[in-house]
Amino acid sequence: MDFPEPPEEAKGQAPGRGKGKKQVKPRDKDQINFTDPDSRTMLDSDKAFIRGSGVQAAVDADTHIIVAADLTSQAADRPHLVGMVEQVEINTGRYPEELSADAGYWSGANLKALQDKGIKAFIPPDRVKHTEWRKTKSPRGRIPKNASRKYLMRRKLRTKRGRAR
């Protein structure tokens, strides 16, 4: 059985080493993905190692049509939110009015970028179990003057409108 040549990064020099350094040969247990050489070993949400790629998708909530997509070698979602919003604008000619995303996209910088574009964000700062969000009651009382972004977002997501997202 003939196998295709491994990608350049898998043979010879180890990634990150400059010229003149000792060449490193792959060990017997090293793995190469011949069908998808761009995939990477990543940690999934359960902290297990998987071989794959990070996939981003933006979907119109009304029509359920994918309006932007991206494939990346990074497992983290956070750095890709603003880029996906820009792709949505390029593909549709406008920014979304609202944006719902999971906790992996939460960051102060992302919230600020969305706010600057006039987009209402619904992004939980914490992972929430599927059964938990239904049990929460709408918040009552005044919002504290010194409330953090996380507090404000948690409060927003506990409202009827926030839970509908």
Q: What does this entry look like structurally?
A:
The model has no long low-confidence stretch (mean pLDDT about 80). This protein has a domain at about 75-165. It has five helices and six strands, in the order ββββαβαβααα. The chain is an alpha+beta fold. The protein is globular, with a radius of gyration of 21 Å. The N and C termini lie far apart (about 50 Å). Strands 1-2 form a two-stranded antiparallel sheet. A two-stranded antiparallel ribbon has the order 3-4. A hairpin with a 6-residue loop joins strand 3 (about 55-60) and strand 4 (about 65-70).
Question: Key features?
Answer:
single chain, 165 residues, alpha+beta, 5 helices, 6 strands
Please count the helical segments: 5
Order of neighbouring strands in the sheet with most strands = 1-2
The sequence of SSEs as H and E is: EEEEHEHEHHH
Principal-axes geometry comes out as: globular
The percent range for helix content is 10-25%
Class derived from helix and strand content: alpha+beta
User: What is the radius of gyration?
Assistant: 21 Å
Count of strand segments: 6
